[in-house]
Amino acid sequence: MKKIFVPLLLTYIFSAQSASASIDVEELENLEKQGKYQIALDLIEPWRLENLSQEKALEVLLLQAKIYRKQGRYEKAISTLDYIEQNHYLNTPLVRTLNNEKGINYRRMSRLEEAETHYYRALKAAQELENNTLIGLAYSNLGTLYDHKNQLAQAMQFQLKAQDYLKGSDDHSIKASNFYNLGDISVRLDDYEQAEIFFRWALAEDKKHGEIVAIADSALRLSQVSFKKENHLLAIENINEALKYLTQTNANESLSRAYHMLTSSHLKLQQPDEALVNAHLSLDFANKAQSSVQLIYAHISVSKAYLSLQQPHLAQNYVTELADLVAEEAHAPLAIHYYEVAAELAFQQKKMDVAFSFIQKALNARRLNDVKVNNQKAQTYRNSISSLVQRQQLEVSEKEKALAQSQLQHNKLMQKAWIIAGLSALFICALLTYIYFIKHRSANLAAKLYQQNLKQKEKLLADISHELRTPLSVLKLHIEALEHNLFDDNSRAYSKINDKISQLNALITDVYQLSQAENNAIELNEQIQCVRTLSENYSYDIQRMTESHKLDFSSEINIPQGATINIDKPKLDRVVTNLCKNTCLYTDSPGRVIFKMYQHKEHLNIELQDSSPTVTDEEIPKLFERLYRVESSRSRATGGSGLGLSICKSLVELMSGSIDIKRGTLGGLDISISIPIK
């Protein structure tokens, strides 16, 4: 039992590991959207990546780098991106993605020059891809970069340019980022009305995209603008919306900041009880976040809430802790907040001298901070103006360069135009010459064809005259002989005369039928015929004819049962009869004739083979010519008109078929007909 159980257990474990080895990229993306970064990273293990295809492994690694960035682990993110760059084929879309991600990471590490290099590489790749959404993202990132450089005018230009490219885009995440950046710049320019519009647009796009952290961040920024505009009720509404999403994440610092802002709004609305509750929540999340700055703001919130409730004894401990925290941080705006809270505490404790002292410190610190802030703003505006001027100069330089290149291109195009015009003129002359030559040659050819037709007609008339002259001469002689009673047996003479009249009638009929066939004056009367019946009738008729000429006959018939053909039977009968007569007339006795009739694919085939004599290869193509006979090759006098094969060829072609003559295996000729079965 143990021997059986252990292998089964090992098999189960191995199969379970194999099943869990696969990584669902869609699941990872959903976790990333929900802000569950660590869970997503735990699912991505090196041994699991080894089991993935290269394409899927690339998707997972890019998502891993993105999560590292959102966690603030920028060095780790760049290391992952470098690994991708070294181990994967770098096509243009991947080059754009890698440079875009590296640019974001370097910017957040304040390595702005490196960030700018990667952003411009990403822009170039996006332009090569001719993708407006990606071009817009590149310009938006450049705008954020120049915002960090305190070049607000240039930053705003890039963001507005990005907005133009993103019109009509369905990538809500990129559009939200662009609106968010425009809102940030508007706040820095103290344009809160415009900032509020941009942040509302950003929030709407974030909701369409569905990334929880981004939605919460946009809602939080919107509430900050509402707070700046003294619209505290709206600020509370926006903060509560942000908290609805933030509570689904582990963003403790953002949660602390949201509750701090909520505390401030409630204090402004003189709602100290609500403010106190939110202040303590802010402090709890600040302790979890281990952020010294956010811890200071949380202590300020709690201290102000207790002081608003006229409970200085409860505020005392928090103000004392606040003093230590501010001393460690050494940040002027935080120190001002501390001085103001300490002054209020001293005032409620009736320590007027201490309160006055803190008020004085707050005023001095605020004055110094205002000077510093104003100087920074002035420097920012100077940098923006300087950057704008440089940018305009660069644009002018680029326009001049583009104009020079355009002029050069214009000159080249003009040269090409003249060359093309010259070549076109030359081509037209050549074409006209060629047309004239073709027309002249066509006219000459038409004239030659006309002359040939005349000659053929003259020859035909001469041949027909010759063919008529012989029986007519014989008729005349016999008639004259009858007039002078030169025949012993008049009945025999009349028989000869009748034969010659029949010969003349047959010749005239053949000429008439040939003329009709060549002028397409014959109409087909097609009807459904049984092919087996046709073959039996033809075999019987040919056998009788060959036996009358003392020739051996055999037939080979292979027709499927029930086979039919839509054909003009009288015309096919004429063709077969003509061919049979021709065979009997031109085959020496004793000789042999073979009749074949069979169906091959979609065609009905008829063959007649005879024994010697045959004709030369040069004479075979002439056999279909009118009034052509080869008496020198075929030793017997035939008495034929020489039109039979011509008539056969015309009738077969009228029935969409083909006729062919070649040397046969019996020593004579092999005539084959192929007619399509309709």
TrEMBL record:
Keywords linked to the UniProt accession: Coiled coil, Kinase, Membrane, Phosphoprotein, Signal, TPR repeat, Transferase, Transmembrane, Transmembrane helix, Two-component regulatory system
Transmembrane segments: 417-438
EC number: 2.7.13.3
Catalytic activity field: ATP + protein L-histidine = ADP + protein N-phospho-L-histidine
Histidine kinase domain sequence ranges: 463-678
Superkingdom field: Bacteria
Protein name stated in the entry: histidine kinase
